[in-house]
Each structure stands twice: as C-alpha cells, then as structure tokens.
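Contributing: when you submit paired examples, paste them exactly as shown. First protein:
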Amino acid sequence: MDDALDTPAAPPAPRPSDSAARLAAGALLLSGAGWLARAVWEARLYSAGEPAAGLPDQGDGVHRPLTSLENSYHLVSTAGSVLTLLCAAAFLMWLRRVRDNARALSGRPPKYAGIWVYLGWVVPVVNLWFPRGIVADAYRASAPERRLPAVVNVWWGLWLAGLLGGFLEGEDTDSVIGRAYSEIGPLLVADLAVVGAAVAGALMVRTVTAAQTARLAAV
C-alpha cells in the first residue's frame, strides 16, 4: 500500500535512533519478564488446584473472595499489563523513527502509510503482516545490499503464535484464573510465545537499528 499520506516534498533529515532503540529494547525485555511472571503464577495456580469453593467467577455476577494466590496473580497481571502498555509506546516511537529515517536514506516513500505504524497492530487481518512489513521495508531501505535478518521473522512468528494463542482475547483476570485451573497448556504456550517474541523483538530492534546507524554514518 503506497504512502498516500506522505507529501512529495523532500523528507526530513534522518535522526539517530539509538536512544529510541535502547528504550524499545529495554521495554520489550521488561514486558517479557512481566509475561514470564504471569506464566509462573498460572503454573502455581494449576499446581494448587481449584479451591473447594469453586472458581472466582461463580456466575450470574457473583464472585467469591479471592485466595491469597489468586489475589497475587491479579497484582502480577496488572503489573504485566502496565509494562506491556509502556512497551507498546516505546516500540511505536522507535518504529516511527526508523521508518522516517529509511525514507530519508532511500529517497522514496515507504511502502506503508504512516498511519499503519499504529493501526496496523489493531485492524483485523492486516495486523497479521503489516507490522512486520513496516519493519522489513525500513530495513531494506536502510541496507538494500543485505538480506532481511532472520530475527525479524523469528520475532514476528512468535508474536503471531502468542496472538493466535489468545493472549489478546480480552478475558478478565478471574476468567484467566479459571482457565489456569483447567486449561493450563494453551495458556502457558501463548504466554511463553509472547515472552519469546519480546526477547526476539529486542534483538530485532538492535539489529535493524545497527544497520541503519551504519548507513547514516556512511552518508
């Protein structure tokens, strides 16, 4: 999709993205740690077993008092959600920066309009490939003589595994606790896929930024 939102005027001068990359990579690792903590607490819930009083959500809007373990899972889940939001903000700032730099270095409009840097993650169907495409396009414009690094595909594959595994289904925390008691396998697979995507994403950010920084130094 051509970038119809970009004007034909000369693109702005590229700006170093090292600081944005360090922030994004650090935020990705922190977010991954948050999801790993969630997986550990879910395994603890499974090991403890469902209480005799039943699930936290009793149905018909009735919720029983939480056990200490369930209450601590709520805290871990909330902390993980906050870290994920901060990670998203840092990552999008980095992605916009490398996209703009790639445009300046290549002298051509990016393949994807600027609005897709943000909407590409949430619009159904296109969110299955647009974000990866934006990263790949920025890398190829910055280092046209190199092949796309494998870490880009590893990052995106793990992200899709977590996405399709249901970690963004929007379930409330009590429902996730109920799943941990009875369906721990799919829950842990999705969580660990997100953890892997966070680690691979941090490596991807450093790899793409390094290639772009080298090109900036050369020109």
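Second protein:
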Amino acid sequence: MTVLTAPPGSARVPAAPRLTRWLLRLHRPALVVWTVLVLLCSALLVWLAGPLTDAAAEGWRQYNACAMSARCSYDQDSILHYKDAYTYLTVAAGGLPFLVAAWAGGALTGRELESGTAQLAWAQNVTTTRWLTLRLAVPAAVVTVGASLLFLLHRRAWTAGHGRIDTAKSWYDLWTFETNGLLTVALALAGLAAGVLAGVVVRRALPALTLGLGLTAGVWVLARLLMPHLWPAVTQVTTPGQGYGQHSGIQVGQGLVTASGGHIPQPECYAALPDGCGQAFEKLGAVGYYTEYHPLSHYWPLQLTTSALVLAVAGLFVAAAFWLLRRRTATPHRRTATPRAAERATA
C-alpha cells in the first residue's frame, strides 16, 4: 500500500481557516466554466419557455386549423426550432452528473493527490478529514444551486409547452422525467461523490476521471432500472374482449388475470392462427388482462423515492472515500509507533 506523504521543499499552503478560499482560487477556472454554463442554459430555458414555445404553439394551431386542406401554410420553422432547443437543453441538463464526475475525479481529487498538493496541505496541519470535507461540501453547494436552478427552469419550459405543442415530450419520457425534478440535483451530487471516491482510489487524474464517469453511469442506470419499482403501481384490469386497457404513464408490467384473481405473464402465442391466442389463454384459466403502470399523480412520489435512492448511493461513496483516505494516511503513524515502543521497552 502506498503511503501518502508531503513532497519535500514545497511552498507553504494557507492555514486551515483559509482553506476554503484557497480551494476556490485553486479551482477558479472550473467555477467560472460552471457559472457560465448554468447561466447560458438558464437564459436558453427562459427563451424556450417564452417566445419559442409561443411561436411553436402558434405554428401547431395553424397546422391543425388547415390539416384537412389541400394547401396548408404554417410556421414549420418555429416548431422545429422548439423541438431542437428542447432536445439539446434536456440532454445538457441530463449530462450534468457526468460533467461533475469528470471534474471531481480528474481535477478536484485525482490531480491534487497526483501532484502532491493534497499532501502539502496535510503537512501544514490540515487534517485529511477537513481536506476531504471541504472538497465535498463547497462543490456540493455550488452544484446544488446550479442544478436546482436548471431543473426549475426546465420544468417551467416543459409546462409552458404541455398541451399546446402536439409533439411535446410526455412527462414520463426518461430524459424529461429526470430533468424536470429533483433527480437532476441528486444525480449531480452522486456524480460529485463518485468522482471524489475515484480520485481517492486511484490518485491519478486521468484514471480517476474515467472511473468517476463509470461509477456515475452505474448510478444513472441503476436509478432508471429501479425507478418504476420504488412506488406502488396502479393496476388496470380489463376483460378478454377489451384487450389491454389504454393508459398514459410509465408501464411496469402486463399479463393475464386468472379466475382466482392471480396475475400471470402472458404466454407466447400467434394471433394470426385460426383460434388466435384463445386456446392458450383458456388452458391457463385466464379471464382478463392486467396492466400495471404509474399515472401522472405518481410523478413526485417517483421523483422523491428515486432521488432518495441516488443520494443514499452517493452517501456510500462519500463514506468509502473517507474510510479509504483515513486508512492510507494513518499507515505511517502505525508503522513508526512499533519501533518507538520497542525502544522504550528495551531502555
């Protein structure tokens, strides 16, 4: 195990009370880039929620008014501009966790441990706990403010077009669901925690950046897979003649209802056969169909439960980073304690 020590002959770093100011100065370029990015996306989201949505809605009103005519004149450019702007801004907001993870792993921890900046701070009576706490708390505050602003403005833009633009994304679209709520903030904080853990683990900038991105991608996939199952779904039951019922929301599962009221998966069958799927269903004792889904009223329960899951994983990353850093930095003290104890015993 490699011992983390301060490089000899290094310049003095600020004392602990001024470490926050020093941290901000050290990572000023990243802070400037983050601020510019948030302000730019915010301005574009305000534009999307206002003039661009109004123009696209008017374009769709014109199109629907003359849809049955042989010739139709409508503002197609406004509709396409709205679609492109919404897509790009949604992807930008959804990509924040990966941007934060790359910076936290590559620059915030990985580069400082690789260059010796962190070890220099520890040699100036800055404890490893305080050092790591500041590298989590200060960026977490900045990330929370920026991500919260973007999700609020994105939700405002989506709400402005909902019901007015025919091609507007539904609330359960995966990217829209994520960027319209607190999950955006939770994933960004998870990206920060993943990057910090990656930096502490590998202590090199580029490998830490890669590992941080990988951990963040894992949390992102986990959240998407588990989200539909974190809140009880609504069950819709229909008769065989009705088929599967119509619904609008996040589908969790479908299948057959037996005479006893049980739910079983639908077997594979070919409706093109003369008897269709009737014989297969009769053998199973099916008397209807069921569909489990989440309606619009489940949006915030799903948002809160999924965000809580993501934050719990982020907490595990933080705990692992503190544990690993303490273990590595405590090694020299344990190694030097044994010879001194032996000298006292033989004196």
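If you have annotations for the second protein, write them as plain sentences, like these:
The chain has two domains: 16-230+298-339, 250-294.
The longest strand covers residues 250-258.
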